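Notebook, p. 212. Picked up where the previous page left off. The plan for this session was modest: take the two constructs that came back from the sequencing core last week, fold each one, and keep the raw output in the notebook itself so nobody has to go hunting through shared drives later. Recording the first one now, exactly as returned: residue sequence, then the structure token string.
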Amino acid sequence: MARHTFVVFTNPTEGREDEFNDWYDNTHLSDVLKVEGFVAAQRFKLSETDPPQEFPHRYLALYEVESDDLGKVARALSEAGDSGAMFISESLDRPDAIAKYFTPITDRRTAD
């Protein structure tokens, strides 16, 4: 079975960050994992560094996907969101979000 990573960069709608995080953590991750092919999920927040990092998105979600038909998985996720079967909160700055699928081209390497 082929493995893929679905990478999603997001921001909350202005003034709705707490609502955004609650929805994403307590609703959205579980909803995505109900879509056939999605097997794991984890969220991240842009780290505070000195000097500060400049990046247009403050949040990242990584989803692990296992499927030999990635197109079918992508269509199922889109259909769930478009049909209303998957609730998408207005606290998500949806026009600003970036979501892309990636397929590994090397084996995973670790430090010696």
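Okay, moving on. Second construct, recorded in the same format:
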Amino acid sequence: MEMHLVDSSNVSAIGYDEDSQTLQVEFNSGATYQYFDVPQQIFEGMLDAGSVGQYLNQYVKGVFRYSRV
């Protein structure tokens, strides 16, 4: 999965696998989470968001199943 560095105080990089619709989020703390069944437009919106952390909290957390990697 190709990871994209992002400018965020909480998130260091995000990546997306189209085939499995898996969003991967690497936090500055070193923790990595995968979110499942995420539509591609959510990933693209996150890439374009003014605040990646705010977007994550609003559109991803509590919406999609996840697992810590």
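Notes on construct two before I forget. The mean pLDDT is 97.
Flagging for discussion at group meeting.
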